[in-house]
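Q: What does the assembly look like in three dimensions?
Context provided by user:
Components: two
Sequences:
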Amino acid sequence: MITLISSDKRKFHVLEEVANQSLTIRDVIEDRRGRRRADRIILVTNINSKIPEKVIVYWLRHFLMPEEIAHASMSHKKAEKLKKWEAKFFDTDIDTLNDLILAADSLDIPSLFDGACEKVSDILKNRSAEEVGEISKIENEFTHEEEEEEIPSENAWVWRNEFA
Amino acid sequence: MADEVDFLSILPDDVVITILSFLPSAVAVRTSILCRRFRHLWEASPSVLLTPRYLPRPNNLSFLRMGERVILQRHPSHPILSLHLEFRRFTPPLRDQFIYFMLVKAQSLGLRHLTIHESPHDLVYLLPSIFSIDSLESLDLPTIGPFHARMFHSGFTSTCFRLTTLSLRFFNVASFNISRILPQLPSLEDLRLEIRAMDCLSLPSQTIRKLKLIIIGADDPKFESLALSLPSLESLHLETRGPFSFSAHCPIHGEFPLLKKTVIILDEVHAPDATAVMRLLHSISHVQELSLHVKEEKYPIPNPILLEPGKTLPDFPRLKHLDVSLCFHDRNFDAIIMVLRNCPALESLKLVHKIPKFTDWAQGRKRKDWRSELPRNADGNRRYAYFTNLHLGKNKKEFMKFLAKKCTFWRRAKDLDV
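A: Here is the predicted structure of the complete assembly.
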């Protein structure tokens, strides 16, 4: 059993085998193998407590149902189930997804990272640039001329319905 | 405002590029208007997906502009690792030259994964240039018809020395053309092949480890021989769609000493095909994991499709996991019991009863003939039977009891013979 501590000082107890899905944590555990129990506490900074909950839920699910199940047809059905579950899991607001990406990046969990990135790209896919700007709250610091003339003419085929 | 974090802008560049790489190129380019940082960020995305779907006006001209901007004008410091091309309703003369230029440029940028969706009309002129991209690791091509396949005639050479994954679909292409491709690909490991049934086919390769063979059947021609000389094969997926297309005396030639896992999916099998199915099972008899799915179609009376009376049963000395779904009417159930007696190493078993359709195709079917003979399970029905850990004491006993069940049909047949 190892303990994770989030940035707002909440503790999460996780089985080692489960937490091993994070490559960062696995390395830390490997480094500290054979030491006292106090060392089995891992401080996870820059992540608030809501995210570890989600990450641990994700771990547990993947721990119980590893992706590469030996059985041929069985794995197909299970993979389908897992897909559905993941779709539900990633169906959250964009801030949570953002934090999940950061957490997955720093903890090095490739499948979670890819899944969250894909979900974000799905959100962006069917929206116009203005809408994306609104969702992502990115401040638009282009000058008026740039926005009206320069950038649209650079890639006219994306913006305009007709070519001049 | 402290918790009002800018989404996307707090993420590091490489993470944003990962997100952009999931997007079709047209959408990724649109992010250039978000802010200064994003203006040229999309150019670094290593995966390019060109599709007319997300263009404001999906016509030739805008597709051309897109290809020009995203690929031809790409800075040499940004490699393209994966390229996905999708064409829809584009006039041929515009396309093939242009695609050729895009491929040449992509090759110079180190292209590794290429997928082409929907056949461009003149694929035949593109195939030589596709098969000369030496950095390619995976390739997925649209359907190749007899017209296109003429380039596989003698003289076809390929320089894809690193290609490991290949997915091909053929439509009415002569078998010698197909067999010519494989010797040219020295590191191929994973092959997915979709073909129409033909007289004979041989697939020689020293390196293939995974084969997925999908056969689209017809009543004629049927396979007279299928030669798979694949000594490194580990996983085999054999699927037939439509009428079963192996003739009764068609064996699979070839030895697969490393074969571990086999999936066989058969569509529309009837009584005369039993011998062919048996031969199929004989040729893979030393497999460790077998998954067999059979559909019986069109016939009003249940037929034994696994076994024929008087023929030898396949022996599965190394089989550990077996997964069968078919209609377990009394004949098939008896057959499966006989087969299981020949599997000494079995660890897990999964039997699923597939109820055939009672539609116009098979008028005169009576439900009672097709009733499942599986033992009643924990859910109180006879639709499936699972057995796990068969090599352990208590389960083994239970399983032996299951095996000792009556094989009424075969005994009756024997009695009649005597």
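Follow-up: Residues 92-108 of chain B form the longest helix (17 residues).
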